[in-house]
Amino acid sequence: MIFRTDLALENTDPERHIVREEKGCKITNIEEGGNTYVTLEVKSISDRIDSDNSLLTLTAQELSKLVPEKGSALVAGLGNRDITPDALGPLVAERVMATRHIRGELARVTGLGDLRPVSVVSPGVLGSTGIEAFELLKALVKELKPDFVIAIDALAARSPSRLGCTIQLCSAGISPGAGVGNSRPRIDQSTLGVPVISMGIPTVVDAATLAYDLLDGDMDGKEEKIAPRGAQMMVTPREIDLIISRGARVLGMGINVALNPSMTIADFEDLT
To answer: What pLDDT, on a 0 to 100 scale, did the predictor assign at position 127?
Structure first.
């Protein structure tokens, strides 16, 4: 039985997890293969309006530890905005403030001359564009020469209890689609030539994995019901719309604050 997951939390020995609690959020740090994985867990993003911006602030704080102190950034919202469980990346990109073009006289008259240069892109998916996200990002990195990339994508979890409750940040890059068995070319420092920090929220779980748990591992003769005609199925929460919309705000504004801490959340919300 293959248990698909994008979460380091579910793929590593719990004894290696460094856990702390802060503002009602459980934060887990994992060091694996020279990379850092940070997981923030709350009761439910869909039930949490985050009116005090505590989760957003924690996300920004943890992200700021992974990104370089200085230098330009390329933010990439991966995924398909037409499929709700996969729309997280594009919706996050809409909330990130692009600042690379703010320079010279424009910077002077707007008072935004001290901002870090940030470029934003939603590369779409191969089925819609005919272009791999990796191919587009590699071309953009070659042309724009950012100092690092932040890639955002919806994730798959091993456990249904983590759906819409977990935010993962890591310094290892990302393999889009790996968690749902549709792995695309990997996006990381070895392929792009610059550091890649990835962010995501798990929105789906493999139906076979869920059935395995519910049936206590007794899958004998039930494979056809779980994957009719061999078609893999994924399960997503009923409140996926809220998870995506609220999660997009937390991640998008978290990126803004982490990259340009001289501005406030209110400032960014007025400008984006």
So the answer is: 81
Percent of the chain with pLDDT over 70: 85
How buried is 96 (Cβ within 10 angstroms: 0-12 exposed, 13-18 middle, 19+ buried)? buried
At 62, the amino acid letter reads E
Q: What is the pLDDT of residue 179?
A: 45
Q: 37: which 2 tokens?
A: 């994985």
Nearest to 123 by CA among 148, 149, 101: 149
- 21, with CB counted inside 10 A (0-12, 13-18, 19+), is exposed
Q: Are 265 and 70 in contact (CB under 8 A)?
A: no
> Are the beta carbons of 121 and 76 closer than 8 angstroms?
yes
Residues 253, 269: contact at Cβ < 8 Å? yes
The pTM score is: 0.90
Amino acid found at 265: I
pLDDT score recorded for residue 149? 98
Nearest to 91 by CA among 268, 263, 250, 271: 250
